[in-house]
Amino acid sequence: MSKIELPSYLDQSPEVKQRFEELKQRDIILEVKDLNKQFDTAKGQVTALKSIDFKVHRREFVTVIGPSGCGKSTLIRILAGLESETSGEVLLDNRPVKGPGPDRGMVFQGYTLFPWLTVKKNVMFGLRNQGISPANAESEAMQWIDLVGLERFADSYPDQLSGGMKQRVAIARALAAKPRILLMDEPFGALDAQTRSKMQSYLMEIWKNIDVTILFITHDLDEAIYLADRILVLKANPGEVNEVIEVPVSRPRHEDQFIEPEFLATRKRLDELIHPPSSQDEEEDKLNMIRLAKVGDDVEPQV
Amino acid sequence: MSSAPWFAPRVALSTGRERVLTVASFLLPLFVWAVVSYVPFIWHPNIEITEPGSVSYFQSGMQIERSRFAQERQKVVEEGGDIPQGIRANPVYLPAPHEVAKSFYTSFTTEPRMRSEQWLHESLWHSIQVIFWGFTLSSLIGLPLGVLCGTYAAISRLNEPFVEFFRYLPAPAFGALAVAILGIHDGPKIAIIFIGTFFQQVLIISNTTRKLDMSLLEAALTLGSRRIQLLFKVVIPGVLPDLYRDQRILLGWAWTYLIVAELIGSSSGITWFITQQARYKNFDNVFAAIMMIGIIGLATDIILAKLGKRLFPWERGSNKT
Predict the structure, then answer these.
(1) Strands of the sheet with A44-57, listed across from one edge
(2) pTM above 0.90, yes or no
(3) What is the pLDDT of residues B85-137, one digit of tens each?
(4) A166 touches B at CB < 8 Å
(5) How far apart are CA A227 and CA A252, in angstroms?
(6) A187 and B CB contact within 8 Å
(7) pLDDT, mean over chain A
(8) How many CB atoms lie within 10 A of CB B78?
(9) Residue B61 reports pLDDT greater than 50
(10) pLDDT tens for residues B260-275?
(11) Burial code of A222-243, b = ≥16 C-beta within 10 A, e = fewer?
(12) Nearest CB to B317: which of A99, A116, A159?
């Protein structure tokens, strides 16, 4: 079997290079400075996040990925203001943020739609909080509902919608409040593969058409590459920035790109970062597999 | 009829089967009662004397234990004389279904024995009013307090330890005190229902409120909700259907305190009717009155359940009732 020679994930085509040049010129929306988070547990202090530093530019799409326990959820919750940092700073438009606020919209993995409100009223929720009149809030909400293609369901309750539809409402609801940045915490994690890839395309389409900056947490390598301009790769224990990858895949993105050399090269790099070849654990897994097979129907391990 | 199994763990029944079983759940105890009442060789521990014969203390219509009757009869047979006759009967405190069924009507039409006494419908109405005021007063304070306890840890800490203590004090124990403070009429009765309901209510409502999904509050925070808005726009609407269910259960508890409450001070309402009828040995009326409480309770609950479906349309899809 011949092995395909992949380019380095660091090689960028002139077009991609130019896009990143241009991107770095834009305003900085979110800046995280030396962010640390420690938890007090029964076993003593645990460092969840250690000296996290990064910037997100206007209309940039940044994905955050890392092995389980790397604190990516803690990170996004601190950015949203739902948890407080132990030390360090989070700047939004160069101003430090304290506590949660509508300038940082959030989409949770668990939908979190208000079950007692219809789709329309859910989307109106943030607008009404800003003191917008019911009539104006409603017409504005309807535009967002149109954008996510759910106008037929405007008067339905969340319980009557599928998972993918619920998450589209959640996105519309977050965007309607006109946040400076949209924080997404594994928003498609609970969806089946087909819905998930549809939702990714939806999200790309929305992001392309409106002025929104997105920070997106995922544990899916393909999703991380497919959506992102840059990928923030974290490592666990303690959670630190491992590498920031500029995705060398051209835009606009489409699913055929999953097998492009640039995509595969990035994927290979992510794989190395997230599943480092460790020794002990994997050995044991393999032994168990053989034992299992032998317990079964006299299956010979395949060569 | 479908061939689906009747017994499959946690599988819902068809509507037809549900109806059949609902009816059966009432017919089954009725059937047992009817068998005990109408089949003479089942139970019937007494003999109702139809012909006293020459036993001096027998009177027709009088009931006596079977063994005792046999003894006396034996004595008469040995000594010679008129042999007493009787039929097997159940004790007076177990009237047959048809007698109770008749009482459902006649107890309403029977005039009270004394002019100061109340008709049955007046007694029932009086009981319903006592329940209503006891439960309403309790809810007026208990509901808001429970929601606040479930929302704010500080309010919970300040209230719940004491409430937790107080709910172990049996409400009837406050009877004498309530009479001393509130007089002998409806005041103490309402107070007993209040005490019996309120402390449980605060704890149940606060626990239900605490079950609200925290992420809904977090979502509201990221959408710009602040402090008091969280309470009124997220917590309260979020738990309202569950609070409604709790209230239905608590109303049932309030009914269980009614009988004790009505014995306090001057006996009144349906309890007065029951004790009075028992004194006259009209046990058919007693059974009818007890059943009326059950029917009123069940009917109220069914109406409230139906109303709940209208009030909370977003719950329609889910399995909660």
Answers:
(1) A44-57, A28-41, A87-92, A95-96
(2) no
(3) 999 999 989 999 999 999 989 988 888 877 777 888 889 999 999 999 999 99
(4) no
(5) 10
(6) no
(7) 90
(8) 8
(9) yes
(10) 898 887 888 899 999 9
(11) bbbbbbbbbbbbbbbebbbbbe
(12) A159
For chain B, the residues whose C-beta falls within 8 A of a C-beta of chain A are 213, 215-216, 218-226, 229, 233-234, 237-238, 240-241, 312-315, 317-318
Asked if pLDDT for residue B319 goes beyond 50, the answer is: no
State the Cα–Cα distance between residues B224 and B303, nearest whole angstrom.
Answer: 39
ipTM for the whole complex: 0.88
- Which tokens go with B63? 């009931």
Contact at 8 Å (CB) between A79 and A99?
no
Q: Which two tokens stand for residue A228?
A: 């992102």
Describe the strand order of the beta sheet including A61-65 as a list of residue ranges: A104-107, A181-185, A213-217, A61-65, A230-235, A240-246
As a whole number, mean pLDDT of residues A223-238 equals 93
Q: Which long-range contacts (CB under 8 A, 24 or more apart) does A272-275 make?
A: A273/A233, A273/A235, A273/A242, A273/A243, A274/A65, A274/A66, A274/A67, A274/A221, A274/A233, A275/A67
With cut-offs at 50, 70 and 90, classify the pLDDT of residue A300: low
A84 — contact with chain B (CB < 8 Å)? no
Concatenating the DSSP letter of every residue in A175-210 gives HHT--SEEEEESTTTTS-HHHHHHHHHHHHHHHHHS
How many CB atoms are closer than 10 A to CB A27? 10
Q: What are A183's strand-pairing partners?
A: A106, A215
Parallel, antiparallel or unpaired: strands A61-65 and A213-217: parallel
pLDDT band per the 50, 70, 90 thresholds, residue A237: confident
Candidates A99, A106, A116; nearest CB to B219 = A106
